[in-house]
Amino acid sequence: MFAQRIQHLTSSIIREILASAQKPNVISFAGGLPAEGSFPDIDWSVLPNKVRQYGMSEGEPELREAIAAEARQKGISCDASQVLILSGSQQGLDLVSKLFIDPDSNVLVESPTYLAALQCFNLFQANCRGVNLSSQGPDIANFEHQIRDYKPRFTYLIPSFQNPSGTCYTPESRQAVAALLDQYNLPLIEDEPYCELDYDNLAKPPICSFMKTAPWIYFGSFSKVLIPGLRIGYLIAHPDLITPLVRLKQASDLHTNRPGQWLALEYMNSADKPQRLERLREFYRVRRDAFAAALESEFADLAEWQIPSGGLFFWLKLKKTVDTRPLLKIALEAGVAFMPGEAFFAEENPPHGYIRLNFSHTEPELMVEGLRRLRKVLLESDNA
Ligand SMILES: Cc1ncc(COP(=O)(O)O)c(C=O)c1O
């Protein structure tokens, strides 16, 4: 009855967990939720009448202009005609899948990578191949080897405060990746939802800003800096790619919701945007530091980790290489949620012994208690 691709439609472990993790007695380090305390108040009564009408598939012209201007400041050579407003940057994953993936196409992703990207590429029957990632960025020799072996349709990378590992590529690594992609004319999908959540002021030039010949698509999002429920993201595409992407967007949902775009533009134009962003960074920096201290007191003998310079996650390598998936159910019963690391790997037999912990959504007072519950689960489980 259903299309063949539906066999490849896996359920997202994240969504299932978010449901149980919302119980009042559960301390959740699972989802990538921004803190509700960071959301601005909205006065919808001043919403202009015109944005209640249908709009353009590309998005609101002023918002596209503002996004292009900001991107140029980051070094991306572009104009507003290359910007497409999306229903969350997640929609960009759907559109690029439709643009590039045939059954059995190869796609290169980081190992580990964003699990909802894997879910989307797999639905379109791609073979996702993982490129090794170090704390500086991808292993270039391994990357090149895989480009030669698999002839992928594109590569999908999250260079700044990567989900799940927190890795931020160095500028040198970004340059090296750009040169490699140009050399093989391999299209880049550069996904940057965490770029602004930078707590240590790292240099983060976009990879696409170094690219001279290969096609690229850059994704950005208002979810982490404004309100995720608005579902406003965008892509900026190489001129050769924007027309089919706009048509795919039109076929998919006509256009992104206009009230949300209006609010995103208000944010972009607000005189105090730099101060708002700095307040947000400070809010999360405090949480990051509180979580690092809680980990140090509760997990020092159980795991290793790097303190992330941005984003929303700690990525832990457990000292015992256990399959963390069966532990999730036990942890939820014990009142704590986490993300099993296996979910973030493209391989059918993923490596064991990793977990992702979100630090942005839990009040600092509850962090130690949550980690104590998780510690107990790890220590008491048979296979830990
Ligand atoms: C790497 C990555 N890409 C995309 C998204 C989706 O973001 P949006 O809310 O803009 O759809 C997320 C959300 O957590 C993410 O971590």
From TrEMBL:
A Pfam family found in this protein is Aminotran_1_2
Q: Which residues form a coiled coil?
A: none
Q: Residues in domain Aminotransferase class I/classII large?
A: 50-368
Instruction: Output one GO MF annotation.
Output: transaminase activity
Under SUPFAM superfamilies, the record lists:
PLP-dependent transferases
Which cofactors does the annotated protein need, by name? pyridoxal 5'-phosphate
Q: Which UniProt keywords apply?
A: Aminotransferase, Pyridoxal phosphate, Transferase
At the top level of its lineage, which domain of life is listed? Answer: Bacteria
Which Gene Ontology BP annotations are present?
Answer: alpha-amino acid metabolic process
Recorded hits in Gene3D superfamilies, A to Z, give: Aspartate Aminotransferase, domain 1, Type I PLP-dependent aspartate aminotransferase-like (Major domain)
List, alphabetically, the PANTHER family matched. Answer: AMINOTRANSFERASE (PTHR42790), KYNURENINE_ALPHA-AMINOADIPATE AMINOTRANSFERASE, MITOCHONDRIAL (PTHR42790:SF19)
Subunit note:
Homodimer.
Give the family, as the similarity comment puts it: Belongs to the class-I pyridoxal-phosphate-dependent aminotransferase family.
Specify the protein name.
Putative transcriptional regulator, GntR family
